[in-house]
Amino acid sequence: MAKVPEITLSSSCNRTRPVIGMGTSSYPPADPETAKVAIIEAIKAGYRHFDTAFAYRSEQSLGEAIAEALNLGLIKSRDELFITSKLWASFAERDLVVPAIKTSLRNLQLDYLDLYLIHWPLKLSQEVRQMPIVKEHAFPLDIKSVWEGMEECQNLGLTKAIGVSNFSCKKLEELLSFAKIPPADNQVEMNPLWQQKKLREFCKAKDIHITAFSPLGANGTKWGDNRIVECDILEEIAKAHGKTAAQISLRWIYEQGVSLVTKSYNKERMKQNLEIFDWSLTEEESNKIDQLPQRKGVTFASILGPHDLMLELDAET
Ligand code: NAP
């Protein structure tokens, strides 16, 4: 079974976490049994860090997989896992935060999360069910009051740590100006074609860890494509190491000192994604990747609707 290195999250929680996690958002959505079986396979392969969200509808499958892994003796205790879930934008209101985490915990059959994130830096009206989201249903987030709700979740012991997702430097500045518990993590889109250099520098200075999502460019989803897994430069580097372009992307992200969550429900690929820790990129290879032309992240801006609140989800700024 693969051994995954761990990092320590910020001093606000002092938690350790495996640097690579299994994402559980799939497109089109996997049926619950497929997701559960894949998650059990991931635990067998060595994954101990799982990323879910109320919005992914994968919390139940993850909860069932954890219960079964305990029954099968694949893990001895829930404490061996690091579980992240996220506050959906429809519940981004002070008084809805604690009930929302309790719903997620019920879905997951757990007593606590390891990390709870504000999923998007915006508020959606509660009736939103479909993409693209029309402008009339999206509102600016009242970060201060929602963060108070997040702090209450940590103070109540419902989660060990709290953080954010898709937050720009500007939004983080605002949050840090009043946070009693600073965010431990900012989960954002990051890969060799969207490197988030400015945001990474900012977060490093502020002791906020970064977790990269869509590290393989989300190929096969409505918003992603094959520009990472079929990138010529990554493939050329991969050839020299006997690896794949996907593994080069994951290794490069790891070497930047950030964590990553990647999704594969395929047994072989989920194993390959863990085989990135016993070799390294040369300085020349890293420089080549650093200089790849950047394209603006398109994960959400492209599917949500082209107006300012949505476009702000492309972090960096
Ligand atoms: P990703 O991990 O970049 O890509 C997933 C796609 O790549 C899947 O189609 C997968 O297919 C394929 N794949 C996986 N390993 C591969 C490999 N070694 N070679 C070739 N193809 C491979 O994209 P993602 O799912 O968008 O991001 C990962 C996780 O991040 C999500 O599951 C979710 O947990 C999280 N996320 C968070 C946010 C947020 O707003 N916070 C947004 C998006 C995603 P197979 O399953 O068939 O292998």
Automatic annotation (TrEMBL):
Binding site for substrate: 119
InterPro entries: AKR, AKR4A/B, Aldo/ket_reductase_CS, NAD(P)_OxRdtase_dom_sf, NADP_OxRdtase_dom
Key word Oxidoreductase present: yes
Residues annotated as catalytic: 56
Alphabetized GO MF terms: oxidoreductase activity, acting on the CH-OH group of donors, NAD or NADP as acceptor
Site (Lowers pKa of active site Tyr) residue list: 86
Protein name: NADP-dependent oxidoreductase domain-containing protein
Organism of derivation: Fagus sylvatica (Beechnut)
